[in-house]
Q: What sequence folds into this?
């Protein structure tokens, strides 16, 4: 069992239940992301700094 097996995964509040979602889990220095349809599949892990930059880039593109 890995640390990710014991972590709490969350689905986006903007998810509409159509299966096109990701789940994420956060820790002090890492954000992990996985496909909600394949919970035992691969996980992408990012530093919190990289994740914040990614989200800021999305917000800038969307204009929110």
A:
């Amino acid at each position: 069992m890995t640390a990710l097996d014991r972590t709490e995964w969350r689905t986006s509040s903007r998810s509409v239940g159509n299966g096109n979602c990701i789940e994420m889990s956060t820790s002090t220095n890492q954000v992990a992301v996985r496909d909600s349809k394949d919970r035992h599949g691969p996980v992408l892990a990012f530093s919190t700094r990289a994740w914040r930059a990614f989200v800021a880039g999305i917000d800038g593109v969307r204009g929110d």
Remarks:
- Helices lie at 48-62.
- The chain has a mean pLDDT of 82.
- The beta strands are 10-11, 22-26, 30-35, 43-47.
